[in-house]
Amino acid sequence: MSQTKITSREYEELNKKASPGTKSYKTIPSAFLIGGFICVIGQALTNFYMSLGLVKDEASAVTSISLIFLSALLTGLNVYDNIAKVGGAGTLVPITGFANSVVSPALEFKSEGYVLGLGAKMFIIAGPVIVYGTLASVIYGVILWAVGLIF
Fold it and tell me: N or C: which end of the chain has fewer CB atoms below 10 A?
């Protein structure tokens, strides 16, 4: 079998033909509305937990846990993907999007077993975010410490 080599220009043209155009006039407002709605749910949960007597920091922590749980549950029920089809980038609100990125691969590879499937593949998408986020925070901390020594 011979392999045909194409130039980067030809590849770009093939990619443009195969990729559907984005309708920004539609996707941007829906991302804004869905992302905003997720944030409104978070604020409503915080207010609810504060009305139960929790202080703001405690209510915020319980809200984070609730949003992670709801996102994981909706992902498991295959509802989160349908919301993402409408809301696009709006569903990437950090905590819910992160929970979705952990649960989705876990569900996809669960047939391979708990260790080699679920355990090994759970962080396939979220892993790089954790690694680079941790690395960036360490670098930021070192810079902040160095600036504190200078000034």
Answer: N
